[in-house]
Hints:
Elements: H1 5-14, H2 23-48, H3 53-64, E1 70-71, H4 73-80, H5 84-96, E2 100-105, E3 108-116, H6 120-139, H7 144-160
Helix pairs in contact: 2-6, 3-6, 4-5
Amino acid sequence: xxxxxxxxxxxxxxxxxxxxxxxxxxxxxxxxxxxxxxxxxxxxxxxxxxxxxxxxxxxxxxxxxxxxxxxxxxxxxxxxxxxxxxxxxxxxxxxxxxxxxxxxxxxxxxxxxxxxxxxxxxxxxxxxxxxxxxxxxxxxxxxxxxxxxxxxxxxxxxxxxxxxxxxxx
Length: 169
């Protein structure tokens, strides 16, 4: 079997610090390299659509929740790991471009909602389709069963580390 870049890095560590070499190091380095490749795909596709990765994340999150495609800014920020300042900037740009609307909650004036505009729904769908198609192309050289098995294995690792979906808590 051919060696990957991580095999070479691990081999270099075997002499100076053999105690750091093992499956945790290998998994971490491979996830890091794969994440970098996937982040590049997102950057390329979002730039082609005139959006930033953060804008893509917001549009995607709003589209994913289904009609009326609305979330609170705090839900967006926490789900996307953005600061309140970061989410405010992203929301401002998306609102200026007519892709989202912001409105106060009629039942609680302290609560604001962000929702996809009529124009934002198809825009969100278009960019989500572009990014997922590019991700599929990224994995096209690997057998589908291998990709599925890797996804399942990583799910198990994340669950073991406590990354549990809210509804399963």
